[in-house]
């Protein structure tokens, strides 16, 4: 593990959540290249709405965490995004959360503390503040998701343009003249699938505030025109582009290029604050792996057929992971399968049977977990 910025109990600070918050927020906000704003008296303001959004996101993770749950609060800063992850589950639905004006707090004393220092909102407007900050820069909408076993809530705040030119170039190359026929919302869905690996109804509602039925019709229309491939059914449906456009390779690349991450374990209100860290998420042997002709060839039998025997799929996964580290999402994209289903049906059993090894065996649920064949040399 390489460390560029570590906060530990060295006797120079109290080691409580309040002190932790003050120190972390400074590290998160430093070096943000943003145009300054003016107040009503035309004086330069000390912070922008983006700074306010980051402050709200950090306070939100601390306030709504289940401090008796598994794992700690993880705060990571990358070149192209912030990620805030806390143990526990949402106490309201994601739709209610995004609509705002509904507040259901797990730790009211912490909420009161942050309200008193101006770090949090009580009326359910905190999410609006986060989204407003990101909209001011025309960045992609923040994404909230839940994980089970262990229960965690993840906020991902991408510092990426809503419709990046590089994504439009890839989609133009993929669809040709057809791309000009897609309307604005359809382009947004395709760009999301390109940048994030897949898109679903919930994610489109986070981006556009559209009605669920309208988003379903939109995505199904793209499927009917062979612009997207559907995985799963009903509320579990996810949609991917028909071929890899390099987006997941770009995402993988960002995991190991100058990743500035801050990490802390806060298991209870009395817990020692562990540290803020930059993780070395290097997957150096598989840079741009989804463009790698060898991997595409190995995965072709699975990608080209909807049904394949478990034995054949297992062999394909082993071949892909032999001599290199691949993340779950990379493998899923290569074989054109749902990543969660792939993990449960193949990756977990293959690890248990000694066929695959984890890059981080002591933390199997890390979001950047990677796999290699047990007999592979890395």
UniProtKB/TrEMBL annotation:
Q: Which UniProt keywords apply?
A: ATP-binding, Helicase, Hydrolase, Nucleotide-binding
**Which residues fall in a coiled-coil region?**
none
A single GO molecular-function term is: helicase activity
InterPro entries in the record: RecG_C_sf (IPR038475)
Gene3D superfamilies, per database record: 3.30.565.60
- Organism domain of life: Bacteria
PANTHER family in the cross-refs: GLPR-RELATED TRANSCRIPTIONAL REPRESSOR, SCHLAFEN ALBA-2 DOMAIN-CONTAINING PROTEIN
Provide the protein name.
Answer: Putative ATP-dependent DNA helicase recG C-terminal
**Which source organism?**
Desulfomicrobium apsheronum
């Amino acid at each position: 593990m390489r460390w560029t910025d570590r906060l530990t109990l060295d006797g120079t600070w109290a080691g409580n959540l309040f002190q932790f918050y003050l120190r972390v927020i400074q590290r998160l906000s430093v070096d943000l290249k943003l145009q300054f704003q003016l107040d009503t008296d035309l004086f330069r303001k000390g912070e922008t709405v983006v700074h306010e959004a980051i402050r709200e996101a950090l306070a939100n993770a601390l306030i709504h965490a289940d401090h008796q749950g598994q794992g700690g609060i993880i705060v990571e800063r990358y070149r192209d995004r912030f990620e805030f992850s806390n143990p526990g589950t949402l106490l309201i639905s994601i739709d209610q959360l995004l609509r705002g004006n509904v507040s259901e707090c797990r730790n009211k004393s912490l909420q009161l503390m942050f309200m008193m220092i101006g770090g949090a909102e009580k009326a359910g407007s905190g999410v609006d503040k986060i989204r407003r900050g990101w909209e001011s820069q025309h960045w992609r909408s923040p994404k909230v998701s839940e994980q089970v076993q262990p229960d965690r809530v993840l906020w991902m705040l991408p510092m990426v343009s809503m419709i990046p030119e590089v994504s439009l170039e890839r989609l133009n190359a993929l669809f040709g003249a057809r791309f000009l026929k897609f309307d604005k919302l359809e382009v947004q869905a395709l760009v999301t699938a390109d940048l994030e690996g897949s898109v679903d109804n919930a994610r489109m509602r986070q981006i556009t505030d559209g009605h669920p039925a309208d988003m379903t019709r939109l995505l199904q229309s793209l499927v009917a025109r062979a612009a997207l491939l559907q995985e799963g059914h009903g509320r579990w449906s996810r949609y991917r582009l028909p071929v890899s456009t390099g987006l997941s390779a770009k995402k993988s690349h960002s995991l190991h290029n100058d990743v500035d991450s801050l990490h802390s374990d806060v298991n209870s209100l009395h817990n020692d604050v562990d540290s803020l860290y930059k993780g070395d998420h290097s997957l150096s042997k598989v840079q741009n792996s989804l463009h790698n002709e060898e991997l595409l060839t190995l995965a072709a039998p699975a990608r080209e057929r909807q049904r394949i025997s478990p034995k054949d799929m297992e062999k394909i996964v082993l071949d892909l992971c032999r001599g290199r580290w691949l993340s779950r999402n990379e493998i899923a994209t290569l074989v054109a399968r749902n990543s969660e289903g792939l993990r449960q049906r193949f990756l977990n059993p293959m690890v248990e049977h000694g066929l695959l090894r984890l890059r981080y065996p002591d933390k199997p649920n890390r979001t950047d977990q990677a796999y290699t064949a047990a007999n592979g040399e890395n």
